[in-house]
Amino acid sequence: MITKKNHVLLISRKETFLIRAMEKKLQESRLNCVYTPWDIDDINKNWEGTNLVTLYVEEGEAVPDDVLHFLNDKLADEDKKIISIGGRDENQYICDHVPGTVLYKTFLRPLDNEAYIRTVQKLVNMAEAGEFKKTILVVDDDASYLGLVREWLKVTYKVAMANSGLQAIRWLGKNKADLILLDHEMPVTSGPQVLEMLRNDSETMEIPVMFLTGKSDKKSVMEVMSLKPQGYFLKSIEKDQLLKELEEFFIKNKR
Predict the structure, then answer these.
(1) Are residues 118 and 146 in the same domain?
(2) How far apart are CA 72 and CA 211, in angstroms?
(3) Does 155 lie in the same domain as 121?
(4) Which of 11, 34, 183, 203 is the residue whose CA sits 20 to 30 A from 91?
(5) 0.90 surpassed by pTM
């Protein structure tokens, strides 16, 4: 049974014969599909469960700027992708107005249905596997707290864990993180020392760092704030509040 969960949102000016044929092809390939015209209210109404967006543009049509701005922001905020289908001029317009971090691929009309379906299947699989999620590295010597934070974050983010500053540095030598949540008080190499090391390395100096720690005394806080981290939170923070802070951070700092 086809449901609206984890669907492809198919957007065009109107639901033509070609659009209905695309819907049928997607459904025959066991891919969930929901159609909506390019109207912000309609897109919003059908957004829940969207894994990726396909934008179909007929010859001579122009997607309204407010719709493109809305899709750019929505997709960037949720780390999702868009596929554009149109002629050369229409696709070029989309390429000029949609960031490369959001636009995954363009297809020319007449559409190669098999190539399109393969691309959609690949994107859906990648999205369900969390390939487009932001990666957060959590650094803490307390194994139980590491596990707790991972449970809090794993639905929304890809989570990596390190139980020491040096392990974190080694991990970053082979992997990339969009944000580091760093404990203050750790054996051998403290949180502030780790942050100094990160800031002094050209490969890691731009990675945002937030402290998530039990250290609340003024001296510890001032020591950290002089290093200009992106945030300082106590371990007493509730799950919902931490998720809200992280969501707001990524919205304000789209990368």
Answers:
(1) no
(2) 30
(3) no
(4) 34
(5) no
How many domains, in total, are found in the chain?
2
Residue 80's domain comprises: 7-128
Residue 220 binned pLDDT confidence (cut-offs 50, 70, 90): confident
- b/e map 205-220, b = 16+ CB within 10 Å: eebbbbbbbebeeeeb
18 vs 20: CA distance, rounded Å = 5
CB 77 within 8 A of CB 250: yes
Q: Within 10 Å of residue 143's Cβ, how many Cβ atoms?
A: 10
Q: Give dist(CA 180, CA 169) in Å, integer.
A: 11
What CA–CA distance (Å, rounded) separates 145 from 230? 21
CATH of the domain at 175: 3.40.50.2300
Choosing from 69, 102, 128, the residue where a domain stops is 128
156 with 119, same domain: the answer is no
Close Cβ partners of 254 (under 8 Å, ≥ 6 residues apart): 76, 77
pLDDT digits (tens, 9 = 90+) for 78-92: 888 999 999 999 999
Dist CA 33 CA 8 (whole Å): 5
